[in-house]
Amino acid sequence: MLIVFGGLPGTGKSTIARLLAERLKATWLRIDTIEQTLRACGTLPDGVVTEGYAIGYSVAQDNLRAGGTVIADSVNPLAVTRDAWVAVAARAGVAVVEVEVVCSDAVEHRRRVEGRVSDVPGLTIPSWDAVQQRTYDAWSRPHVVLDTASRTALESVDMLLRGSGLGGHV
């Protein structure tokens, strides 16, 4: 199965994706890590544009074809990136579940963004203004919407696992 996470920075998606991957013994594929590694190489004259996602799609497909469960973790802000993950699952012949992580409490979301410390060496954390100004397409397919405003990451993982069809709002 491919479980695709998306959501603005500071909503808790990476923490939840990592914990879910630990519980499921799944591959946690974090686009922030891939993109920062590419930046650190310093060999892309225009910086990292689409390369991180392209690598993520290929690595996910390899792991899915090998029989693994993959959890793709990224902001996933555009319909085109979400469509690409769905296409990866189709090519691998596996089910896909899309999970949008939101924080409906703007004050709490801002507190999280402003208090974040990166665990990816060299990764610059976006400011609250950058998060607010980010392009983020509305989701057009049925997907799980996980609101983390009043739950911990562990509670969120438990809810995802309990609702294992992983469809609808949780």
Question: Could you describe the 3D structure shown?
Answer:
The protein has 170 residues and is an alpha/beta fold. The chain has one domain: 3-Layer(aba) Sandwich (Rossmann fold), CATH 3.40.50.300. Helix content is 46%, strand content 14%. It is built from 7 helices and 5 strands; from the N terminus they run βαβααβαβααβα. A 5-stranded parallel sheet has the order 2-3-1-4-5, sandwiched between helices. α2 (31-41) crosses α3 (51-65) and α3 (51-65) packs parallel to α4. The longest helix has 15 residues, at 51-65. The chain starts with a strand and ends in an 8-residue tail after the last helix. Mean pLDDT is 92; it is low at 166-170.
Give the gist of this structure.
The protein has helices at 13-24, 31-41, 51-65, 79-92, 106-115, 128-133, 153-162, and strands at 2-6, 27-30, 70-73, 96-102, 144-147. With 170 residues, it is of the alpha/beta class. It is globular and about 40 Å long.
Break the fold down into its secondary structure elements and pairings.
Blueprint: E1 2-6, H1 13-24, E2 27-30, H2 31-41, H3 51-65, E3 70-73, H4 79-92, E4 96-102, H5 106-115, H6 128-133, E5 144-147, H7 153-162
Parallel strand pairs: 1-3, 1-4, 2-3, 4-5
* Unreliable residue runs: 166-170
Strand residue percentage? 5-15%
Biggest beta sheet attributes: 5 strands, parallel
Q: So, CATH architecture?
A: 3-Layer(aba) Sandwich
Helical content stands at: 40-55%
Strand order of the largest sheet: 2-3-1-4-5
